[in-house]
Design goal:
The chain is α+β, with helices and mostly antiparallel strands and about 350 residues long. It is built from 13 helices and 13 strands. The strands form 3 sheets. Strands 5-6-1-7-8 form a 5-stranded mixed β-sheet. The structure holds magnesium ion.
Length: about 350
């Protein structure tokens, strides 16, 4: 029986996506160690490994590792430069399949998406069956592997997916959720960045369970309001909704920096400029928007998209810019170099002729 208000959230995440895409168009590389990343230049190359297949991982290679180090470990692996246009094309096809099987769909990066399937999947059995359907369809139509995590919220779905990799499905019920994560190190908790993990470690919290049992006030002293979220998450609680973003109808702008930058002042200034351009388009279109999404692409080509739903439809420039800056400030990993940022507004409503107060309130 399904408890009232119980949510079923899935995270579908492609396995070694860039390398899997390369294997697809170059089948001769399949079964051999394959690295997608910067040019290794016989060990003198700069930059990092973006992703590598499981054959390469057997030798200890992994994403984020300096390409020179990867080359020292495995000089005879196949090194391929990234082709993001091709990956984006494949990503669109993957996302179509995921979306077809969702009540609500939120793409969070080029190769992963959260879906809320509470309406269409009844309990564990239904959720597992649906995960199989998505996984098999991605495999059958695109010949790409993925993993699926299923849980009562986004946090648990993400962490179940990590545990299911590669090529697996894992279901964690609401009752099992706390136990599922309590032995894991705090830096494995979804959303915890390097800096937060270091701070937690210095406070003596090594596992998620220790953080869950910590005094909330002491966590708040150290992290402010964010401490409440951290503490809840450690207790397997995550109330955030699957936030529909990147709808077909959307208006967006992106900007690539001449040089990768970690200067938050410069990035925020750029967000203001893009926000103004997006607003100009919104004005021209006559639409109002409900959702603002910020995209950050880091220098290692990792890409993050974060969205926020406004309380009501808006056509205001301030709403675009302020929401974008709040999202950026909340999710940006300080010190990480950024290559590109973007802002997109979606959930568009035709504003003209219905501009009455309260019209868009839910
Ligand atoms: Mg992935």
């Amino acid at each position: 029986m399904k408890a009232i208000n119980m949510r079923i959230i899935m995270l579908v995440d492609m396995d070694y996506f860039y390398a899997a895409c390369e294997e697809l168009r170059r089948p001769e590389l399949k079964g051999k160690p394959l690295v997608v990343g910067a040019d290794p230049k016989n060990g003198a190359g700069r930059g990092v490994v973006y992703t590598c297949n499981y054959e390469a991982r057997k030798y200890g290679l992994k994403s984020g590792m300096p390409i020179s180090m990867a080359y020292r470990i495995k000089p005879d692996a196949f090194y391929v430069l990234p082709d993001f246009e091709y990956y984006e094309e494949m990503s669109k096809k993957v996302m179509e399949i995921i979306k077809e099987n969702a009540d609500k769909f939120e793409q969070v990066s080029i190769d992963e998406a959260f879906v809320d399937v509470s309406k269409r999947a009844d309990g564990e059995k239904g959720a597992r069956a649906l995960a199989e359907i998505v996984k098999n369809k991605v495999k059958d139509t695109l010949n790409l592997p993925c993993s699926v995590g299923i849980g009562p919220n986004k946090l648990i779905a993400k962490m179940a997916c990590n545990a299911a990799k590669p090529n697996g499905i894992m279901y964690v019920s609401e009752n099992e959720a706390k136990k599922f994560i309590e032995e894991m190190p705090v830096n494995d908790m979804y959303g915890v960045g390097k800096k937060t993990a270091e701070k937690l470690a210095s406070m003596g919290y090594a596992t998620i369970g220790q953080l869950a049992n910590a005094n909330l006030m002491s966590i708040m002293d150290a992290f402010g309001a964010y401490g409440i979220e951290l503490h809840k998450n450690a207790n397997a609680i995550d109330e955030s909704e699957v936030q529909e973003n990147y709808e077909v109808k959307s208006i967006g702008r992106e900007r690539t920096f001449y040089e990768n930058t970690a200067d938050t002042g410069q990035i925020i200034k750029t967000l203001r400029e893009i926000g103004k351009e997006v607003h100009d388009e919104v004005e021209k279109s006559g639409f109002a928007f409900r959702v603002v999404t910020v995209k950050i692409r880091y220098s290692n080509f990792e890409e993050h998209m974060k969205s926020k739903s406004l309380a009501r439809a808006s056509d205001s420039q301030d709403d675009i810019i302020n929401t974008a800056i709040v999202l950026f400030s909340k999710y940006y990993e300080n010190g990480e170099f950024v290559r590109k940022v973007g802002i997109r507004v979606s959930n568009l409503t035709n504003y003209k002729g219905q501009k009455k107060i309260g019209q868009f309130e839910k």
